[in-house]
Specification:
The complex is a heterodimer of chains A (262) and B (391). Chain A is α/β, with parallel strands linked by helices. Helices cover 48% and strands 13% of the residues of chain A. Chain A has one domain: TIM Barrel. In chain B, helix 5 links the parallel strand 5 and strand 6. Classes of the chains: A alpha/beta (262), B alpha/beta (391). At the A-B interface, helix 3, helix 5 and strand 6 of A face helix 1, helix 8 and strand 11 of B.
Chain lengths: 262, 391
């Protein structure tokens, strides 16, 4: 069984919600990325998304764009991200998901990319610029390697949801609001109605992401979904952390505060 | 497959805009089939943009080069000074038809931004233009024009601060404001249906050229030469000649400081297949798919991708893609100005440069049409700088 399914299933049994955290691989450096993952797991993260840095991250707001740029400047490569995963796997069994833009996969070679990711210990893939219309070829490769291609739905998707979730596994990434990633003061979407709409089409766990600023917002939405995704708010702590130890403990504290309300 | 040119094209964009693209495609298809809409579009092309533009026999240039007869398709004579207005009028009319109240656009050299700001002013729409920080600096005059026209100009300092980053930022903005905002794409790039839609709004250039050259010479040209950044002026003039295999189509990319210098924008000549801005096409990228910084003396050609239909034309051999360096383009800029009294845009000067290379190898029976996509007013300051003249 895929680690993602295992984890989500056991959470569901105990009535808990999943906390999915995102960081950019290689930001600020490869070694710290590994440490961050392990630290977040200890603080209560259930699944970790590792962003593969990309030069033109179309779905991301300024915080994650800057993280990508920092990692690229530090010389991170796809192979080094694979190495980070391998080293995490020596000590941790936390479900890991890559967030990767399609051109990285395409250029690296989809077969090679998926095989190496699976061998390193990755459980799923999120490709934010690969809508259902373009994903057929990828979906087959991903599932033949026992991984999940996580489907994304948006508040604008409506009847498209049916096709998007068809044959998908893992969880449904529910984009909370129109726009790119980034911390928001307020989310205008009627989350309750939106999540109900999604569940009309699928029994997969629903994870809500984009704009979740912290524990309060997580608490407000916890009853409507099976998990929340927090990215930019964490990446911002990494960016602001001048001292490494201090930064790690800030991230841990923030993650555990969110986990508490879930 | 709809939205594809062979393997090229597609819709590699965030889910949030997929419905908007579907709606746009539907609206576009009904609009072009609606004679009333097309009549309105042609009305504005004629009465506002100033079409048809002349197909001018460049007699002096022809004499100087001692070879093929050279004709210039004078897109520089359009209102706002470039071919961009053809496409913008089409898209803004479509935006109006769809009930959008604001338009956004990206711009490199500023020509597309100026055209969009112009149409927005005329049709009473709110307008925001995204422009790379570096281009804002290089094209100060066009920035001022856009502001005069009532547009808001947003300087983008992500990435390389050029056209590529302006497209990224405009797309990100569109994702967030998709309900009331229409994205006026400036070239035959982006996710489907943009490449097809922009081509269809630009094909007026080729349609006119065909009628004009038949009238003037009684036959089709042997060569059509146009510069390629994103590729809209070239696709606009190429497309109506697609079936005429005797007409050789030549796209001229920005060779910058030379292809081996790494400082160029020749994606069809030196790039590889990848995905950028929602389309599968030729891009300049490294081994891991990171988009590489590109360079050209001309801000309008400074783009690492190209329209997917051009990628298809290259793969199938229907068009040939060559390049001209900065130096050759500047030389052509000066030559055309002196011989014909026409100051071309630096973008168009790339096409002129290749014509100047080709014409002497041909006979006077041969006919070359060069698409003069825009005028050079915006580049005069840059040329003065190069010549060491202080304005």
């Amino acid at each position: 069984m895929n680690r993602i399914d295992e984890r989500l299933y056991s959470l569901q049994k105990t009535g808990q919600k999943a906390l999915i955290t995102f960081i950019t691989a290689g930001d600020p450096d490869p070694e710290t990325t590994g440490e961050l993952v392990v630290a977040m797991e200890r603080a209560g993260a259930d699944i970790v998304e590792l962003g593969i840095p990309y030069s033109d991250p179309l779905a991301d707001g300024p915080v994650i764009q800057r993280a990508s740029a920092r990692a690229l400047k530090a010389g991170i490569k796809i192979t080094s991200v694979m190495d980070i995963v391998k080293s995490i796997r020596k000590t941790s069994d936390i479900p890991l998901v890559y967030l990767v833009y399609y051109n990285s996969v395409f250029r690296y070679g989809p077969e090679r990319f998926i095989k190496e990711a699976r061998d390193a210990g990755v459980d799923g893939l999120i490709i934010p610029d690969l809508p259902v219309e373009e994903r057929r070829e990828m979906a087959d490769i991903v599932s033949s390697h026992g991984m999940h291609l996580i489907p994304l739905v948006a508040p604008t998707s409506h009847e498209r949801i049916k096709n998007i979730v068809e044959g998908a596994g893992g969880f449904v990434y529910c984009i909370s609001t129109k726009g790119v990633t980034g911390v928001r003061e307020e989310i205008e979407t009627d989350i309750k109605a939106y999540m109900e709409e999604v569940s009309r089409y699928t029994a997969l766990p629903r994870a809500l992401g984009f704009g979740i600023s912290g524990p309060e917002m997580a608490k407000r939405f916890r009853d409507y979904c099976e998990g929340v995704i927090v990215g930019s708010a964490i990446v911002r702590l990494i960016e602001q952390g001048k001292d490494r130890r201090r930064m790690l403990s800030n991230v841990c504290e923030f993650v555990s505060l969110i986990k508490e309300v879930l | 497959m709809p939205g594809r040119f062979g393997i090229f094209g597609g819709q590699y964009v965030p889910e949030t805009v997929m419905n908007a693209l579907a709606e746009l495609e539907k609206e576009f298809n009904t609009a072009v089939a609606d004679e009333k809409f097309m009549e309105e579009y042609r009305y504005y092309l004629r009465e506002y943009a100033g079409r048809p533009t002349p197909l001018y026999f460049a007699e002096n240039l022809t004499k100087k080069l001692c070879g093929a007869r050279i004709y210039l398709k004078r897109e520089d004579l359009n209102h706002t000074g470039a071919h961009k207005i053809n496409n913008v009028l089409g898209q803004v009319l479509l935006a109006k038809r769809m009930g959008k109240r604001r338009v956004i656009a990206e711009t490199g050299a500023g020509q597309h931004g100026v055209a969009t700001a112009t149409a927005a002013a005329m049709f009473g729409m709110e307008c925001e233009i995204f422009m790379g920080k570096e281009d804002v600096r290089r094209q100060a005059l066009n920035v001022f024009r856009m502001k005069l026209l009532g547009a808001r100009v947003t300087s983008v300092d992500q990435g390389t601060g050029t056209l590529k980053d302006a497209v990224n930022e405009a797309m990100r903005h569109w994702v967030a404001h998709v309900d009331d905002t229409f994205y006026v794409m400036g070239s035959v790039v982006g996710p489907h249906p943009y490449p097809t839609m922009v081509r269809d709004f630009q094909r007026v250039i080729g349609d006119e050229t065909r009628a004009q050259i038949m009238e003037k010479t009684g036959r089709l040209p042997d060569y059509i030469i146009a510069c390629v950044g994103g590729g809209s002026n070239s696709m606009g003039i190429f497309y109506p000649f697609y079936e005429d295999k005797s007409v050789k189509l030549v796209g001229v990319e920005a060779g910058g400081m030379g292809l081996d210098s790494g400082q160029h924008a020749a994606k069809l000549t030196r790039g590889s297949i990848g995905v950028l801005h929602g389309m599968k096409t030729y891009v300049l990228q490294d081994d891991e798919g990171q988009i590489m910084p590109v360079y050209s003396i001309s801000a309008g050609l400074d783009y690492p991708g190209v329209g997917p239909e051009h990628a298809f034309f290259k793969e199938t051999g229907r068009a040939e893609y060559v390049y001209a360096t900065d130096e050759e383009a500047v030389n052509a800029f000066i030559t055309l100005t002196k011989t014909e009294g026409i100051i071309p845009a630096l973008e168009s000067a790339h096409a002129v440069a290749y014509a100047m290379k080709l014409a002497p190898k041909l006979s006077e029976e041969d006919i070359i049409v060069v698409n003069l996509s825009g005028r050079g007013d915006k580049d005069v300051e840059q040329i003065a700088d190069l010549m060491g003249v202080k304005l």
